[in-house]
Amino acid sequence: MKFKSFLLLIVGAAFIVLLAACGTDKEKNEGSSESASADSGNDTSSELEGNVVIDGSGTVYPLMSRIAEEYMTTEQQGVSVEVSRAGTSAGFEKFLMKDGTDFNDASRKIKEEEQAKADELGIETKELKVALDGLTFVIHPDNDWATEMTPEEIKSIFLADGGVEKWSDINPDWPDEKINAVGPNENHGTYEFFYENILEEKDLVSDVNLQQEYSTLVTLVSEDVNSIGFFGFGYYVNNKDKLQAVSVDFGNGPVEPSLDTIAEDGEYADFTRPVFTYLNVNHAKEKPEVLDYALYVMNNVNTFAGETGFAPIPNGEAESLIEELEALKQ
Fold it and tell me: Mind giving me the DSSP string for 37-98?
């Protein structure tokens, strides 16, 4: 009997130890589960949801839409970034209103009257320089006479008092055919840059064909050997199979627009311009996704500039803008 009692005591003790061990393992597992859940929560805390609305420049559109695509795919899948291209001026109208767009892409700087409207509405704007663009003059691929011109010759085609109607008016050896000039309309910052900076606000020829859509300009030039048009370098790059670019002689020989020559202090400097996106700072402070997207743009814009037909901005300029955006975080 004593032996049986001792045996029962041993079995009971072992059972108690086993129960304790199971309880400890269960607690450990529960602790691990809670820890994993907490870690998962930390991982998803940076995930954002919402909408970012962008409009404005047709020139900047390929760059911004490419960045938006990458952002939605790899960075914040819960954020929808809508990019449209009404044109710089038309875009500013949508930007400078109550509950307007979050960003306005612009191929020129904001005008004084636009900034005054922003101030009146209490909209704080921030200019973000995103790339460098080269104003590019394009002709038909079969045009083998006007492949190189001076700025003065180009301007004479578009100026009302330029004295040029036919190619032979520029050079008697060129065809005695009427030149058909085309370009973007007044909604576009590209038109304004050309009119204000290149033509110095002098009247254009009365029959210049100004269009809203850049694709229309590509078609007009590609189907008419006597046409000449202008727009940003990116639209030329994407249509090299239909167009050729005019090399411009600024005084030291003809220079073809390219990512190597487009720079504010480069060979194509006279026809180089910065392009921008303008941020509604009020929205950036209210909606985390807007500020997050602005930071993503400035951290990655130089990566995507070249593939969309733009020259990059200096890294130092991008870094300064990133620091200014970081300061908006609350």
Answer: HHHHHHHHTT---EEEEEEE-TTTHHHHHHHHHHIIIII-TTEEEEE--S-HHHHHHHHSST
pLDDT in tens, 8-42: 444 444 444 444 444 444 444 444 333 333 333 33
Contact by Cβ (8 Å): 182, 211: yes
Helix (H) or strand (E) holding 15: helix 2-44
Specify the fold of 134-272.
D-Maltodextrin-Binding Protein; domain 2 (3.40.190)
User: CA angle 312-313-314, nearest 5°?
Assistant: 120
Is the Cβ–Cβ distance between 303 and 313 less than 8 Å?
no
Q: What is the pLDDT of residues 80-109, one digit of tens each?
A: 999 999 999 999 999 999 999 999 999 999
CATH class of 50-132+274-326: alpha beta
Burial 216-231 (b: 16+ CB within 10 A, else e): ebbebbbeeebbbbbb
Structure tokens belonging to residue 237: 């790059």
- Residue with token string 């908006």: 328
Q: Which helix (H) or strand (E) holds 131?
A: strand 125-139
Q: Residue 46's pLDDT is what?
A: 75
pLDDT of residue 115: 98
Using alpha carbons only, how large is the chain's radius of gyration in Å? 31
